[in-house]
Amino acid sequence: MQCVRAWRSLNYLCRVAHHRAWKRTQSHTTAARLDLSGIYPPIATPFTAKEDVDYQKLEENLQKYAKIPFKGLVVQGSNGEYPYLTVEERVEVVRTVKQSLPAGRLLIAGSGCESTRATIQLTQKMAAAGADAVLVVTPCFYKGKMDSRALIHHFTKLADSSPVPVVLYSVPANTGLELPLDAVVELSQHPNILGVKDSGGDITRIGLIVHKTKAQDFQVLAGSAGFLMAAYCVGAIGGVCALANVLGQELCELERLCVSGRWEEARVLQQRLIEPNAAVTRKLGVPALKQAMEWFGFHGGSCRSPLQPLTEAESQQLRRDFSSNGWL
């Protein structure tokens, strides 16, 4: 009988200690939780004629971005051509951006790799280089096996070991793989997974993610300027938008209009952004984004091989998409 009482007492004390530790962890997590709301350009990586990273031109772009009211910058995302950079280059670009970033702005670094082990290692390097959070794309080379079970395992192991918060990244146009809704919902419960950037463009899915994760303080970012207003309508809190590299002030204005509920003005501005956004994303991609950056006074330049510059016909189409909406 005494053994039973002792066991019960010990069990009670363990539960109390666990609860207190859990509360301390929750308080620390809540206090440290980053507010992601706002607009982020996923910045391009300038290259020299020999295809080396051009750090001088990168810093000149950063000086111009500092004058635009972005919440922060996404570095080494899809528009930064991260698959074509070495690990050392990816980290050095992040370190360079951190040194030039104005105080109070967030730096979100892309650290996704194909294996969980490599992603964890690169995430730790990105954190050491100054990243406030990491944006982690779904592994996709073996996409036939990347079901919810595999992806939950991957992102959970990463979040368990990451020294900075994790933002999930679903970009099916590039990966051929959409992060399943049930996986997003389960992962939203992890204290070190802050939110998701969803670039798929399915507004019903974005609204459902917001709805199903609302108890978790989970933050949803639109992955494109083409549906930014619609995403705000269903509960997104910001956007990581390629077009912000070119029309950053205008994207920040659209955010302001949406947040303040000025929907008619927001609608007019959103409509003018649809065609140029499509041109620099799904239609013509990173080469078009870099060409447009040159027109608007930024350093875009050439892409790293095997990406090729636009043809003359593509360049003319790009110009029409901007000029017909009053941007050129």
Automatic annotation (TrEMBL):
Top EC class, one word: lyase
Enzyme Commission number(s) from the entry: 4.1.3.16
One cellular component (GO) term of this entry: mitochondrion
Catalytic residues in the record: 169, 197
GO biological process assignments: glyoxylate catabolic process
Record-linked InterPro entries: Aldolase_TIM, DapA-like, Schiff_base-form_aldolases_AS
Positions of pyruvate binding: 240
Reaction catalysed by this enzyme: (4R)-4-hydroxy-2-oxoglutarate = glyoxylate + pyruvate; (4S)-4-hydroxy-2-oxoglutarate = glyoxylate + pyruvate
Single GO MF annotation: 4-hydroxy-tetrahydrodipicolinate synthase activity
UniProt keyword terms in alphabetical order: Lyase, Schiff base
Annotated CDD domains: DHDPS-like
Domain of life: Eukaryota
Cited function: Catalyzes the final step in the metabolic pathway of hydroxyproline.
Subunit structure: Homotetramer.
Family the UniProt entry places it in: Belongs to the DapA family.
Protein name (database record): 4-hydroxy-2-oxoglutarate aldolase, mitochondrial
